[in-house]
UniProtKB/TrEMBL annotation:
<keyword id="KW-0732">Signal</keyword>
<dbReference type="InterPro" id="IPR051573">
    <property type="entry name" value="Ankyrin-SOCS_box_domain"/>
</dbReference>
<keyword id="KW-0677">Repeat</keyword>
<dbReference type="InterPro" id="IPR002110">
    <property type="entry name" value="Ankyrin_rpt"/>
</dbReference>
<dbReference type="GO" id="GO:0016567">
    <property type="term" value="P:protein ubiquitination"/>
</dbReference>
<feature type="repeat" description="ANK">
    <location>
        <begin position="71"/>
        <end position="103"/>
    </location>
</feature>
<feature type="repeat" description="ANK">
    <location>
        <begin position="104"/>
        <end position="136"/>
    </location>
</feature>
<dbReference type="Pfam" id="PF12796">
    <property type="entry name" value="Ank_2"/>
</dbReference>
<feature type="signal peptide">
    <location>
        <begin position="1"/>
        <end position="33"/>
    </location>
</feature>
<keyword id="KW-0040">ANK repeat</keyword>
<dbReference type="GO" id="GO:0045732">
    <property type="term" value="P:positive regulation of protein catabolic process"/>
</dbReference>
<dbReference type="InterPro" id="IPR036770">
    <property type="entry name" value="Ankyrin_rpt-contain_sf"/>
</dbReference>
<protein>
    <recommendedName>
        <fullName>Ankyrin repeat domain-containing protein</fullName>
    </recommendedName>
</protein>
Length: 162
């Protein structure tokens, strides 16, 4: 139990430190002097943690809304994996690609299904995300929900054609 408490504390402190860095970079007066790469990295982090002011500031200061990290994940993937619908909606309004593919051919919809964010799945599907899009392993959102054992998500997805 002590090991778990320590790991949780360390993870929380890492999150706090990283969030502070993203906010300082995105919101400080010198942020406009940061290059596009730095702004785009701040965008990815801010989208993952759902901090709208930092997302807005990064984009206002030149971040590429479709910037990809080394795994080819975009801010849209990051926000979908954490269930930040408000961030996804804002990114789409700014030209974000909701069907960007990672190195494993995952789109944001796959991430939302994997982590059980039904409200995000609903929005992405209503916005035209392809329900039968396959990952590089051949998995669809139906397969991902089944593997995750998410009966509620499987029932929700059953409305869509397999």
């Amino acid at each position: 139990m002590l090991c778990f408490k320590y790991a949780f504390k360390e993870q929380t402190m890492t999150y706090i430190k990283m969030m502070m860095v993203a906010m300082v970079l995105a919101l400080s007066p010198i942020a406009s002097h940061a290059n596009q790469q730095e702004q785009s990295e701040a965008l990815l982090f801010s989208a993952e943690y759902g901090h709208m002011p930092s997302v807005v500031a990064a984009l206002d200061n030149g971040a590429n809304v479709n910037h990809m990290n080394s795994d080819r994940e975009t801010a849209m993937h990051k926000a979908a994996s954490r269930g930040h619908l408000h961030i996804i909606q804002y990114l789409r309004a700014k030209g974000g690609n909701m069907n960007a593919r990672t190195v494993k051919n995952w789109i944001p919809l796959h991430h939302a299904v994997r982590f059980g964010h039904q409200h995000v799945v609903n929005y992405l599907l209503a916005s035209g995300a392809p329900v039968n899009f396959r990952t590089s392993d051949g998995a669809t959102v139906f397969d991902i929900a089944e593997v995750m054992g998410n009966v509620r998500m499987m029932n929700f997805l059953s409305r869509y054609k397999r």
